[in-house]
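Input C-alpha cells:
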C-alpha cells in the first residue's frame, strides 16, 4: 500500500511542468528570511552583564561593609543633598544642602529632631528597616531578572568613544515579556 501511494505521488510530480517545479523549489531562497528572533549578540556581552549584576547583588547582601554616600535630588524648584549612612539597623539620612547652600537653622533643627525621634522610637526603627528591606528585595528581584530579560550586545567601537558600554543597545529577549505587561 505504501509503495502504490509513493508511485501515485511520483507520477503526479512528473506531470507538473518543469518550470513550476523549479519555481516552487527556488521560492524559499528568493524570499527574505523572516525570523521571529533577533540575531543573538556576542556571548561575551551577555556574560559581562550577568557578572556585573551578580557583583551588585552580592554587594547588596554584604552587611559587613556598610556604605556612606551623598544623595542629590533635583527638581525644577528644589535641589537637596543628603549624606546617607548605612548601618546594621538601616540607612540614616542627614540634610547637607538645599539649593547648594547650607540649610537654614530651622531646617537643621527640624532634621535633628527627626533623627532624635527615630533614635528614641524602636518601633519606628523596625518599621523603617522593614520598609527598606522590602524595597531592597524588589530592587534585587529586578536585578536578577535583567540578564534573562534582555539580549545585550557590544556596539561597534569608534576611536573617539571612551567607553564601549555607553549607549549600549539592548533588546528584549524573545518570549520573555508577558503579553499583558508594559
Amino acid at each position: 500500500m505504501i509503495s502504490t501511494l509513493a508511485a501515485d505521488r511520483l507520477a503526479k510530480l512528473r506531470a507538473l511542468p518543469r518550470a513550476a517545479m523549479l519555481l516552487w523549489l527556488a521560492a524559499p531562497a528568493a524570499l527574505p528570511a523572516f525570523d521571529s528572533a533577533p540575531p543573538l549578540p556576542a556571548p561575551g556581552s551577555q556574560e559581562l552583564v550577568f557578572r556585573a549584576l551578580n557583583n551588585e547583588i552580592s554587594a547588596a547582601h554584604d552587611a559587613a561593609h556598610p556604605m556612606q554616600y551623598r544623595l542629590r535630588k533635583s527638581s525644577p524648584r528644589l535641589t537637596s543633598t543628603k549624606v546617607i549612612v548605612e548601618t546594621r539597623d538601616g540607612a540614616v539620612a542627614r540634610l547637607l544642602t538645599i539649593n547648594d547652600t547650607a540649610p537654614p537653622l530651622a531646617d537643621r533643627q527640624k532634621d535633628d529632631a527627626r533623627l532624635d525621634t527615630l533614635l528614641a522610637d524602636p518601633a519606628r526603627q523596625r518599621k523603617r528597616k522593614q520598609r527598606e528591606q522590602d524595597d531592597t528585595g524588589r530592587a534585587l528581584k529586578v536585578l536578577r531578572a535583567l540578564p534573562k530579560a534582555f539580549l545585550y550586545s557590544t556596539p561597534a567601537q569608534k576611536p573617539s568613544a571612551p567607553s564601549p558600554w555607553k549607549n549600549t543597545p539592548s533588546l528584549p529577549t524573545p518570549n520573555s515579556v508577558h503579553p499583558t505587561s508594559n
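Residues 90 and 130 are 9 Å apart (CA to CA). The mean pLDDT is 74.
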